[in-house]
Amino acid sequence: MKRYRGHHVAVVFFAASLAVIGGLVASTELRIAGDAIERAGVDAFYEQPEGALDGAPGTIVKTDHLLGAPLASRAWRIMYRTTDVHGDPAVSTGVLIVPLTPAPPGGRTILSWAHPTTGAAKQCAPSYGFDPYVGIEGLRFLLDRGYAVVATDYVGMGTDGPDSYLVGVTGGNAVLDAARAARAIPQAQATDRVVLWGHSQGGAAVLFAAERAADYAPELQIEAVAAAAPAANLTDLMGAHLDDISGVTIGSYAFTAFAEVYDEPIDQILTPAAQKIVPEMNDLCLLTNIDQLHAMGDPLVGDFTTADPTTTDPWATLLQENSAGSVAFDAPVFIAQGLDDELVVPDDTADFARHEAALGMHVTYHEIPFATHGTVAYLALPGLMQWLDRVGAR
Fold this sequence. Notes:
By secondary structure, the chain is an alpha/beta fold. The protein has 13 helices and 9 strands.
């Protein structure tokens, strides 16, 4: 009898497992099918309508309810207003994903996600791509915990606007205004409580957002800030890669952005050979064209800059101004770093964590021995979720 009952339990468990797996597969197929249907009209969404710049930061320009959404959620593509480093109005795009489960009595906490480098061209915007949720690291965990997850594309990607690659204030504003935009959509049932989470370029963006929140968006209550391998100190980052392909790739995006945003002649820092190739590199998205980018950039290694940008002004000053850590903020900080990271140097991140703590902030520094730059955000998720519970950021 016990054998029969055990066999029965095993059969029931196996059947239930098949049902769950089948449901996940069906959900994924529906999401991808929805994405495929929407591709025909996706370009029209990113065209800014007349008056797009007219309105307060964080207000909505337009939304598009998405047919394909992660399991047990609903999602929108959004276009919203923000401001750039000079205080001028700008427009950004992104996605908002909200779980179908009922919101808590006080409403949902917002998690504003800032993505790692995907490129600088308009078509590199995560919300523009097929399956716009796939790059949001930890999305399933976050939805299951009830967050309203909003993910900005930054300024200058997706829709018209000034380049903003590693421009700290512009990136931070876009992260904060994405949270404001989430609050502006009634169905999201979002509150003023906000958690900031970002990786690499996005790690720097959320740190800038936290530093600026009290003055720029005082109505938002920043509950917690988490960054994985943040590009926090641009002087250290660029200095570590002056003579390798990472420096050429990052520099092709960053120096182009700085030259445009701060009106500095790019020929003062890039060699003639680099000036010829960098415009083509800036048209390519990192994740889908990494081999091509490296093939184009390899001949420039050792012949990319005319001087050391970490010690030559105005570039040295711009790198410093666009590095995080100038001021403290009133929220606990979680910083994750992979010890096998060859892009963001582990010692530099450890130094930054100590710097933040020296400002009087509550810093949790989480090292992962086998994590690379590409894997650190995913491998940090168990520790991040436990930390969010511990600091009460729900």
